[in-house]
């Protein structure tokens, strides 16, 4: 069956009732709409314009939180054009905007934990493999974006493959950049939660209820099991996961006392601090 392009309004699998307008491939459509309900897309789909704008704005917010100013460490248009000329392909809009926004910022493109060996490749290292643009390496595992369909691609020992239930590019960038940012903050720690916070499958809703006194949940990140939350003015940042089996939290702040106070306020959470001092 021919994979044709479709333009319209769609909901996204795992994104509740959120609707996006865009052009998608028929293979990305998970189910047809019924009645007044829009058709549903798979999670790993080419990004809509709205999703790209959400990603860009979040990257700018993260940049302010980690640097404390409106610093711009994105790649220039000249750098991007040079990369496209070298690759022989145009970068998809979401990949171009990612590099234009934070492509030269080591605090948002690399994990401070060197054991993870997780980083987004600088423009002069991205490369094309079987029509996919390889932009990230985690240990020896490459991540790529299809140059045509703009879906995240993964590789086994023999070939690239598309896993439709994995995150989309924009969704993955938003959470990965946040985790990288936390790792580079003055104080960062990880905690394990118990009780009600474990059993909920709506992480963002729970984060809004539990953490609203000190943080704001990011309302443009729609994953049901994870939430991103932040306080831009105080330069605090957190990631929260609750999937019915466990609930973990990563938090980055300017002082250790902020983490201690947060732990006491939300059920005596015990945090394990990063071993390496940033300053």
Q: What does this protein structure show overall?
A:
The structure is a single chain. 38% of the residues are buried. The chain has 8 helices and 16 strands. Strand 7 (132-138) and strand 8 form a beta hairpin. The longest helix has 19 residues, at 49-67. The protein is α+β, with helices and mostly antiparallel strands and 279 residues long. It has helices spanning 49-67, 77-87, 93-102, 106-109, 169-184, 196-199, 203-211, 256-265; strands spanning 5-12, 19-25, 29-31, 40-41, 118-120, 127-129, 132-138, 141-146, 152-155, 160-161, 187-193, 216-217, 226-231, 236-242, 247-253, 271-273. The radius of gyration is 19 Å and the shape is globular. Helix 1 (49-67) runs parallel beside helix 5.
């Amino acid at each position: 069956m021919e994979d044709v392009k479709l333009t319209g309004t769609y909901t996204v699998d795992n994104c509740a009732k959120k609707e996006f307008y865009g052009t998608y491939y028929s293979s990305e459509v998970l189910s047809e709409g019924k009645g007044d309900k829009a058709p549903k897309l798979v999670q790993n789909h080419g990004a809509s314009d709205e999703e790209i704008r959400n990603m860009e704005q979040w990257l700018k917010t993260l940049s302010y939180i980690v640097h404390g100013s409106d610093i711009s460490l994105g790649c220039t248009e000249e750098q991007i054009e040079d990369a496209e000329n070298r690759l022989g392909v145009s970068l998809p809009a979401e990949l171009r905007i990612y590099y234009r926004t934070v492509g030269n910022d080591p605090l948002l493109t690399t994990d401070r934990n060197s054991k993870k060996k997780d980083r987004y490749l600088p423009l002069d290292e991205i490369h094309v493999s079987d029509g996919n643009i390889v932009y990230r390496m985690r240990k020896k595992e490459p991540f790529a974006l299809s140059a045509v369909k703009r879906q995240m691609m993964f590789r086994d020992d023999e070939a690239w493959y598309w896993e439709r239930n994995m995150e989309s590019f924009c969704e993955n960038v938003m959470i990965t950049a946040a985790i990288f940012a936390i790792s580079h903050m003055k104080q960062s720690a990880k905690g394990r939660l118990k009780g009600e916070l474990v059993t909920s499958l709506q992480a963002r809703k729970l984060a809004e209820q539990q953490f609203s006194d000190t943080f704001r949940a990011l309302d443009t990140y729609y994953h049901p099991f994870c939430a991103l939350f932040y306080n831009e003015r105080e330069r605090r940042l957190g990631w929260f996961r609750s999937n019915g089996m466990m609930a973990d939290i990563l938090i980055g702040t300017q002082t250790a006392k902020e983490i201690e106070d947060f732990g006491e306020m939300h059920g005596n959470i015990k945090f394990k601090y990063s071993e390496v001092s940033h300053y």
